[in-house]
Design brief:
OB fold (Dihydrolipoamide Acetyltransferase, E2P); 47% strand; globular
């Protein structure tokens, strides 16, 4: 995949284990996992997506070829 623009975050899911976060995006994108590898990066993306959800804001997300969210911008 690639950049997905102007997506609403419909819900989020975070497991108690480290680096296991998901976001459900509108427009047929569905549930996407946040890419693991950097604990701080995973946490920061989770906080951004939760903030977008809580405040009804849209996001631009970059989804890599394996379907993981690697970057996000809140609009």
């Amino acid at each position: 995949m690639a950049w997905q623009h102007n997506k609403k975050v419909l819900s989020t899911f975070i497991h108690s284990g480290s680096q296991w976060s998901w976001a459900n995006l509108d427009g047929g994108t569905g549930w996407k996992r946040i890419k693991e590898g950097s604990p701080d990066g995973c946490t920061n993306l989770t906080v951004l997506l939760n903030t977008a959800f809580a405040n009804n804001r849209t996001v631009h997300v970059d989804i890599d070829a394996s379907g993981l969210i690697t970057t996000a911008y809140m609009i």
